[in-house]
Every structure is written in structure tokens, then in C-alpha cells.
Amino acid sequence: MIAMALACRPKLVIADEPTTALDVTIQAQILDLLQDMKERFGMAVMLITHAMGVVAETAQRVVVMYAGKVVEEAPVDELFGNPRHPYTQGLIRSIPRIDLDAAHKTRLEAIGGSVPILINPPPGCRFAARCKYAMSICTEKEPRLREIAPGHRMACHLGDVS
Ligand code: SF4
Predict the structure, then answer these.
(1) Which atom of ligand 1 is nearest to 143's Cα?
(2) Which of left, alpha, beta for 61 (phi over 0: left; psi -120 to 50: alpha)?
């Protein structure tokens, strides 16, 4: 599949969950291959994945989506070092930390609830039913995507004074 995608020398490859169901060894080989092809052919790769570890390792810029909406966008180091949207924070807290010793390990966190039914999405913020910071405005008005730092954008009513 990757060979077929590269045969026409594309400027952009959209790789949708390219490592799903692969063991970690093959996953690493596929990611190395994509990186190599990217540099050799000067192409861009849009990686769509649920694996935050893969994102941290391969991406330069990250766009986090929830229920079909962009909720946060930032350079990879900024996103992992300073996640601002409650959904992004929950995703990052759910990554196993094998770098911590036993004395500093904590229980993995899960985001309670489930995604809304998108045939008839709820008004306001689509994450509101699962968000521990939800306020009344969150179920009334859709948060706009706004710049909160250079190159870092978020769609959340927290700290939005406009
Ligand atoms: S807009 Fe409200 S419900 Fe949505 S993520 Fe922000 S605080 Fe939570």
C-alpha cells in the first residue's frame, strides 16, 4: 500500500492509522520507512492516528480533533509540554509512563463517558458531557478556535474573555 501511494511521487501522503494492529517492531519499521520516504522525496505526511506515542515520535505539528471538530493545534513539543484543552490533557494523562520508577507511578486516567451521537450533535462544546470543567456556556455556545500563544490554538471557553 505504501509503495502504491508513493509510485506517483505525491507532494502529500495521508496515512490513516498506518500502524493499527501492527506489533511494535513492525510499527517502528513502518514509521521509519515513512520518515525516510518523506525526506527522500521531499513530501509531506499527514498522519491520522489515535496513538499519542506515535504522534510524539513522528509529528512536527499536531491537530487534536474531538467528535469531528478541531479542539487544539500546536507544534508537537508545545502540545505535549503544555496541553491546554481538557480533552488533550485527558489524552496525554492516559499514556502509560514507562519512564517513571515504581515509587512515582500513578493509576492511568480514563476519560469518562462516551462520544456524542453525531447524527444529532449536542449544541455548544461537543466535549461538554465529559468535561470536568464544563460551565453553563459550554452547552449553549460553540467555542471558537482561537490563538492562545504563538502557533498554539484551542477551542474552549476556559479563559476566553471575548
Ligand atoms: S468549552 Fe467547556 S466543556 Fe468544552 S472543553 Fe472547554 S471547559 Fe470543557
Answers:
(1) 1
(2) beta
